[in-house]
Amino acid sequence: MIRIQVPATSANLGSGFDSLGIALNLYNQVWMEESDTISITSKDDVPIPKDETNLIYWAAKSLYERCGHKLPGLKIIQLNNIPMARGLGSSSACIVAGILGANRMLGSPLSQKELTDLAAEIEGHPDNTTPAIEGGLVASAMEAGRVYSVSVPVSEKIRFVLFIPPFELKTEKARSVLPQQYSRDDAVYNLSRSALMTASLFSGKLENLRVAVQDKIHQPYRSGLIEHLDDVFRMSYELGSLGTYVSGAGPTIISMVSSNEAERFSALAKSRLKEKGINGWKIETLTADPNGAQIFTE
Ligand code: HSE
């Protein structure tokens, strides 16, 4: 079998709505081989679809069709470490695993560039799928169905502390509350900050991050969907966050923290949540993943 390892991703980084994303060192694993029937199992107790509606299967089938082949069936084994519907790219990870695995099974007819385009086409926007494939911090834009992107490494000085709530938020719902139009002032506010975010994460200019995460495009409209958001943001800044934002469409909240402060920050954050009676939230400290998805033969 082949094993495809795909990182979690955090899109938007506050200001870079639908255009910035980062790969993190938390991974889903998918084992896959061609078969005459569909067999989908899981190594954990996360509920997953076990028929053709399974996203990994569906993405693999799309790649086969794109390459002019019919997928006879597929054996899939999943290990789901990325929490679902939490703004950490779990759907992207399934899509990327499906198309990368299927491409390898067909003898790699599509290039990495073509895989990146197909993943974004299936997902709808490239800000989770492209970092899941390329790793690092990725700036991307779509033009005529193609992804134009650059992946840059993230400064070693930064850690990402995740506040993962005990509830889900579906991307469709989080997008449904956004306005259709924005003012020029709001557009410029975000454009300038997302450019600043890219350059600051790459160079490690940590003092810029607090301004670079600010956003007028999505977070103000989504905040009402995430219980305790204001408490978590306020507490994170009191404890020394360099910049706190809603990961992707939410509901996970991420604080960027200096690497030598991360342990202290996360220990204090845990006790603060407890003191405030905010229960069921998990706190995890991650680094940026520099490599993106990997395929192994086992
Ligand atoms: N950029 C997307 C959003 C991320 O914020 O809706 C979700 O995939």
Explain the overall architecture:
With 298 residues, this protein is an alpha+beta fold. The protein has two domains: 2-153 and 289-297, Ribosomal Protein S5, domain 2 (2-Layer Sandwich); 158-286, GHMP kinase, C-terminal domain (Alpha-Beta Plaits). It is built from ten helices and eleven strands. The strands form two sheets. Strands 1, 2, 3, 4, 5, 6 and 11 form a seven-stranded mixed beta sheet that branches. The longest helix has 20 residues, at 184-203. 46% of the residues are buried. The structure holds L-homoserine. The site of L-homoserine has 13 residues, from helix 4 and helix 5. L-homoserine (HSE) is lined by residues 11-12, 17-18, 125, 127-128, 171, 174-175, 218, 248-249.
Q: How is the quaternary structure best described?
A: single chain
**Mean of residue pLDDT values:** 96
Task: Identify the bound ligands.
Answer: L-homoserine
| Number of helical regions | 10
What characteristic shape results from the CA principal axes?
Answer: globular
In the CATH hierarchy, the third-tier topology of the largest domain is known as Ribosomal Protein S5, domain 2
Beta-strand percent range: 25-35%
Number of domain units:
2
Main sheet characteristics: 7 strands, mixed
Strand-and-helix sequence, N→C?
EEEHEHHHEEEHHHHHEEHEE
Radius of gyration: 19 Å
- Total number of strands: 11
Low-confidence stretches: none
Helical coverage, percent range: 25-40%
Pairing-aware structural class of the strands and helices?
A: alpha+beta
CATH class wording of the largest domain: Alpha Beta
Looking at the overall shape, the CATH architecture of the largest domain is 2-Layer Sandwich
Q: What distance separates the N and C termini?
A: 6 Å
